[in-house]
Each structure stands twice: as C-alpha cells, then as structure tokens.
Write a structure and sequence with these properties.
about 230 residues, 7-stranded parallel sheet
C-alpha cells in the first residue's frame, strides 16, 4: 500500500498544472490528468512517484476514477479561454468554455468525493483574475471563472470536512497567455507575468498550511505587471 498522500492534478501536461504536479511530487503520489498521453507519460517519467491519467474531462465517468479509493489533494488546473466580444461569440463558445471550466470540474469532484472524504482531502481550484472582475472581450471566460468561484464556495459549505481553496493568478507565462497576447496584438513579455512555478507555490502553501488552517482564497499578482 502506498503510504504517500495522493494528489490528482488536471491539466498536468503543461503550464500551471505541470508546475503544480512537480511541486507536489516530492511528497505525494501524483496522478497526472490531461488529454496528451505522450506528454503525460513524459511528465510521469521525470517524477519520483507519478502516473499518467489520460482522460477527456468533459466525458468523465465513474469508470475513469474507479482506481482512486483515497484522495488527499485534487487540483483543478485544466481550462480553456476564447476571447472575443459578446456580439461575436456564438453559443458554442459559451457551451464549450462552461463544459471545460465548470461542468467538468463539478463532475470530476462529484465522482471523487468518496475518495476525498476518506482522506479529509483538499480541493484546489486554479481560477483567474477574471474570476474576480469582468473585463471587455473576456465575457465567456470570465463568466466561467465566476461560476468556478461559486462552485468552490458551495462545495466548501456542503463538505465541511474538506478544505476548498480558490487560487486567483494574474497573467502567467503559459501557452494560453501567448494566445491571449496574439489576440490582443501586443508583445509577449514573460518578465511581466507570473511564472507557473510561482502559482504552484501558492497552491502548495494552501495544501501545506497545516491541519488547523484553511486558506479559502489566494490572489497572486505579478509584481509591477499586468493585472488581468
């Protein structure tokens, strides 16, 4: 029997999810969730105690989590964002964004609640500054992140034996940020953004806060960088 606590991280093949997985790896058995089978296998090979879990989160079923009997940490890091004016975004964009950023999170958590309850576990939702204020041309993404906050707040009230943390990073040096800057027509300035490892340290701070502490929300912003 594995004596290490177990953590499941979604979006673990790159960006913030990969950084969180690496941060947890020294102390946890890490389940690496994502769609890119090869990237997950490569990640797992470089960690001391990890296994890939290739899955389409929007199609998750009970069978996909059948082997997870006890779960100490669940980190929701997978997410998508399509920028555009409300006048220009059809319903399909809104549906897909909500499916990935909210509904898949809710369903995966629901399926894993028995395992989380056994461990008195911790759910961490990697949100965004867009989950704290609305911005023009971020409507569908922002709405999904506001909904993710509501999900975390409700879960915290309904499952008092669990800890539930929402982390709100500002702009972060990831592939998604490159797409954002392409859309905005601006230069990509990684020194102005958070590093994925910095966001991962915030997640780790919440996880390691101690049994008597419950960090419910953490906001992380680049020093002197962009706010959004």
């Amino acid at each position: 029997m594995n004596e290490r606590p177990t953590a499941l991280v979604t979006g673990a093949s790159r960006g913030v999810g990969a950084a969180v997985a690496r941060a947890l790896a020294p102390t946890h058995h890490v389940i690496l969730g994502g769609r890119d089978r090869d990237a997950l296998a490569e990640m797992a090979a470089g960690l001391p105690d990890a296994r890939p879990w290739p899955v389409e989160l929007t199609e998750i079923t009970q069978a996909d989590v059948a082997g997870v009997e006890r779960l100490d940490v669940l980190v929701h890091s997978a997410g998508i964002g399509t920028l555009g004016r409300i006048a220009d975004q059809p319903a399909d964009v809104w549906r897909r964004t909500m499916e990935v950023n909210v509904i898949a999170v809710a369903e995966l958590t629901r399926l894993l609640l028995p395992a989380l309850r056994r461990a008195g576990g911790h759910v961490v939702c990697v949100n965004s500054g867009s989950g704290q204020r609305a911005n023009a041309e971020w409507g569908s993404y922002g709405a999904s992140k506001f909904a993710l906050k509501a999900f975390a707040d409700a879960l915290r009230l309904e499952e008092p034996e669990l800890r539930v943390t929402t982390v709100y990073p500002g702009r972060t040096d990831t592939d998604m940020q490159r797409s954002v800057r392409d859309y905005e027509g601006g230069a990509y300035e990684p020194d102005e953004y958070l590093k994925p490892e910095t966001v991962a340290r915030a997640v780790l701070a919440a996880v390691n806060a101690g049994p008597d502490a419950h960090l419910t929300e953490l906001t992380v912003r680049p020093r002197g960088g962009r706010v959004t």
